[in-house]
Amino acid sequence: MSKKGRILIIDDSSLIQEMMAYFLNDEYEVKTASTGDEGIALAGEFQPDLVISDINMPGRDGISTLLEIKKQVPNVRTALMTSYEVENYIRLAKEHDIGNIITKTDPFNVEEVIHTVENLITGERVFGLENYLTEGTPIIKRRIRTHQDMLETIDAIEAYLQPEKPMLCRLALDELISNAIWHAPVNPDGSQKYEKGSDITLEDHEVVEVNYGKDNEKYGVSVIDSSGSTSKQRLLEALDRQISGAGMEDISGRGTLMIRKILDRCIINIAVGKKTEIIVFNYYEKVYSGYKPLYINQL
Fold first, then answer.
1. Structural fold of domain 129-298
2. Which of 52, 61, 143, 150 has the most Cβ atoms closer than 10 angstroms to its Cβ?
């Protein structure tokens, strides 16, 4: 069977190298390196499609390693890994156009890493809540044109998750959906079309789609707007301003940062000029200890 692509894993932990190679070897050609310099030397010959590097390593760090590899393999896709708080690295991600920072959870979230790798290499299953839940999980779909539609949808999601499942925070749902209704649609000059809270009925091409479902491990919601008015760089810029305090009065990025703090996972998928999808999850139990990853996929 032909492999889907070539992956280079760079990490000073032999355990991480071996574990990731074990789970990825069936579908990808995988090579590993223990240091940044070793990875750079290997990349020229291997010509990987994707490089995943630990951020903090003895000697050369992950960022400078990826920058050197890009000189040899200009079109290579990249991701970072860390055991530390991702928000500490948002500025670096912004400066170097990195949308994915994988966190080393305990236990290691193998399924999540495999999906992240597939998103970066093929992009075939980036969009769609069904791709992030167990195969065959029923997905409930709703379309939103008005504020009343939004309120009814939030009520329906809460009823769906109760009483046997924990409640997805209503504040987070309100933030997700209201941003898609009032902030995503823009005028031809790029200015915001609607004022938040105003009484509107979205046009056919502006209708927001909300999908939700649950499997045995987690429950999730996706919110899709058809404007595609944001980008990975704009999101990273907004997050950096919020985290640093420079954007305390900004609207942009505030909701995304809040959602990252409240919920277990936040995945942002972007097709610029076409659509933006935000997928959020909560696990029923605290299965994975550690920091939350960053996932911004732009096609």
1. Heat Shock Protein 90 (3.30.565)
2. 52
